[in-house]
Write a sequence for this structure.
């Protein structure tokens, strides 16, 4: 019997050991469910600020489990944050060895290099920083690596070190290591080339060290740095020198930096009684010398001159500066003036010219719309309809697409919103933007696993090709404001816009506070739910804590005095602090909209213009209208901010309907 028990025990032990070996080898020890629970506990620890316990939890993930790669990366991030360089090196080295194609490589290599640097392991640090600059040359990590490479090389190769420091301040003149790079440079060498002097001067100026920047700018050719000198002298309080340098420099050979020249113009204008006088003085100098900044000056003077001068300036801008930043808008305005004056043939010529030269500019859909209107005025409906359809195809998310769709659907007045369709209240799910992320081959499963544990933040560190993933992460973290801002930048870079079922539109046009919007929109406040949603997007981008520079507060950006007045009319108690409460703010904002709409013949267009531009101003514009054409009224709104605001609200309304409401135009 004893022998039998001994044999059974031996067999059991052998089976246990064999099972353990097999389980370890083939990953059966730790199921994905177990790994998920451990991983989630690690994420919870991070949220609670317990980084040491988070590190411990992530270290418990089996190396044979699908979560192991992300867990290693998480360990590295935590060790980096805790300044535990040894643990960081261990985690990152293991990650990069076991997963050479990991899409956390860029962040891992950089953090690994910094850890080596901190431990004075100079050769390994140098190799990894160098790898970053070669493999990820356009990244922020590559920029920072230049600084570290300079520090590592300064004792053995001063020339190479200086090149790295110069590279850094050229790329990131107001970056984290800019001033440190300048300090290192001045210790490495005494004489700098002209370009190096300019680079150092620019970095010092951007870091609010105007006095120190002067000594470097003064060593460069005057015609290359006059704008910088003028600004630097102004910042040091030497207004006389600043003014004299501008007047001398503006007529010299123009430096190749329009932004700094424009800043210098505004700097000069500040010396006069008012900005317009200063701009006119700058223009007089430019007219004599035919300087390349004159388009900026004329464009900014247009609001202060009569109709004849406006026409002259618009024509000069696009004729003399066809590749400038203001040419496209000037050509459109010149075209629109021709349309208003009944010169439809001239408007058509300019509209076609705009279409051929400036199809990617902001004014492109406007030019095509008024080109279509010009053909319509000449009774050529075939050409007109062709251009309306072109807007819908090429600029589907624009204000003019809304107008073009109204034309196609024979809607007489798209400016008055009749729809009472409610905004969807259910959570809008947005799939991970795989088509934008350009994920590596065979990475879909890995991505899904991270989504299962809701580790959205980790994707911000991944080596994806654009910002849309960061937008998606922000959305799922509840920051729809950040998500919309990032996603819109991505969309604006695209020549061809995707269809409205693309999730990028849901990121740019999110739905928030739907229950409250539906509650306070409708007949009682004279604003449709989708229009109220569109107004809130434009006013605050759904940030309940929003505060404007003039003191407007909350989601609907109400001025405290206005809110007090509307609260009284609505029978509500007023509390300024409650303007940051979403429901209180939206209720007041909707009531305010209904109030101003009632005072403007129940017209949404006039109410929207009044919401931004003021009741009195809009009343004047209506009285001065020389046409019943509301398209023309919008284009003629004197306040550029209000004109753009009105267009943006209708654009928002159009796109929201295209995304979430199948009827689209209501």
């Amino acid at each position: 019997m004893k022998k039998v028990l001994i044999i059974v025990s031996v067999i059991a032990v052998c089976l246990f050991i064999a099972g353990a070996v097999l389980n370890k080898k083939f990953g059966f020890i730790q199921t994905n469910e177990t790994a998920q629970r451990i991983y989630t506990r690690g994420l919870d620890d991070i949220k609670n600020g317990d980084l040491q316990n988070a590190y411990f939890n992530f270290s418990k993930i089996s190396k044979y489990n699908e979560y192991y790669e992300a867990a290693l990366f998480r360990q590295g991030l935590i060790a980096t944050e805790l300044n535990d360089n040894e643990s960081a090196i261990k985690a990152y080295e293991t990650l990069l060895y076991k997963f050479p194609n990991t899409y956390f490589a860029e962040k891992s290599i950089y953090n690994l290099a910094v850890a080596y640097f901190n431990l004075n392991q100079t050769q390994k640090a140098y190799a990894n920083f160098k790898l970053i600059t070669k493999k990820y040359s356009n990244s922020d990590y590559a920029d920072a690596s230049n600084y570290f490479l300079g520090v590592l090389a300064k004792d053995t190769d001063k020339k190479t070190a200086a090149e790295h420091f110069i590279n850094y301040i050229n790329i990131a003149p107001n970056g984290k290591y800019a001033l440190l790079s300048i300090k290192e440079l001045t210790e490495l060498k005494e004489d700098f080339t002209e370009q190096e002097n300019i680079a150092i001067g620019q970095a010092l100026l951007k870091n609010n060290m105007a006095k120190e920047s002067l000594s470097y700018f003064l060593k460069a050719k005057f015609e290359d740095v006059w704008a910088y000198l003028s600004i630097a002298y102004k910042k040091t309080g030497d207004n006389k020198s600043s003014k004299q340098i501008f007047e001398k420099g503006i007529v010299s050979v123009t430096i190749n930096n329009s932004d700094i020249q424009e800043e210098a113009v505004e700097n000069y204008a500040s010396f006069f009684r008012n900005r317009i006088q200063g701009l006119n003085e700058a223009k007089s100098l430019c007219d004599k010398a035919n300087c390349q900044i004159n388009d900026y000056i004329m464009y900014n003077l247009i609001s202060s001159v009569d109709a004849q001068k406006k026409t002259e300036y618009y024509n000069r801008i696009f004729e003399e500066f066809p590749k400038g930043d203001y040419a496209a808008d000037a050509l459109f305005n010149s075209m629109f003036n021709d349309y208003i004056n009944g010169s439809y043939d001239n408007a058509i010529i300019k509209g076609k010219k705009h279409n051929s030269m400036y199809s990617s500019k902001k004014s492109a859909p406007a030019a095509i719309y008024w080109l279509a209107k010009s053909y319509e005025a000449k009774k050529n409906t075939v050409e007109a309809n062709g251009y309306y359809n072109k807007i819908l195809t090429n600029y589907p998310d624009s204000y003019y697409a809304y107008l073009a769709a109204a034309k196609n659907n024979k809607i007489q007045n798209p400016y008055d919103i009749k729809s009472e369709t409610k905004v969807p209240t259910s959570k809008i799910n947005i799939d991970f933007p795989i088509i934008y992320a350009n994920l590596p081959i065979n990475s879909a499963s890995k991505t899904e696993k991270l989504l299962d544990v809701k580790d959205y933040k980790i994707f911000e560190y991944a080596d994806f090709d654009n910002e849309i993933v960061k937008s998606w992460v922000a959305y799922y973290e509840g920051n729809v404001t950040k998500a919309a801002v990032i996603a819109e930048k991505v969309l604006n870079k695209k020549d061809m816009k995707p269809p409205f079922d693309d999730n990028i539109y849901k990121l740019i046009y999110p739905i928030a506070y739907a229950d409250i919007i539906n509650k306070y929109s409708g007949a009682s406040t004279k604003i449709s739910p989708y229009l109220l949603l569109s107004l809130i997007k434009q006013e605050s981008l759904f940030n309940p804590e929003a505060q404007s520079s003039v003191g407007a507060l909350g989601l609907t950006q109400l001025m405290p005095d206005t809110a007090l007045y509307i609260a009284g009319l609505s029978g509500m108690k007023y509390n300024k602090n409650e303007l940051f409460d979403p429901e209180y703010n939206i209720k007041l904002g909707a009531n305010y909209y209904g109030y101003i709409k009632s005072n403007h013949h129940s017209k949404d267009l006039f109410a929207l213009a009044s919401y931004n531009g003021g009741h009195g101003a809009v009343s004047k514009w209506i009285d001065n209208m020389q046409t019943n054409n509301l398209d023309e009224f919008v284009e003629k709104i004197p306040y550029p901010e209000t004109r753009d605001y009105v267009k943006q609200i209708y654009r928002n309304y159009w796109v929201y309907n295209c995304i979430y409401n199948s009827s689209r135009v209501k």
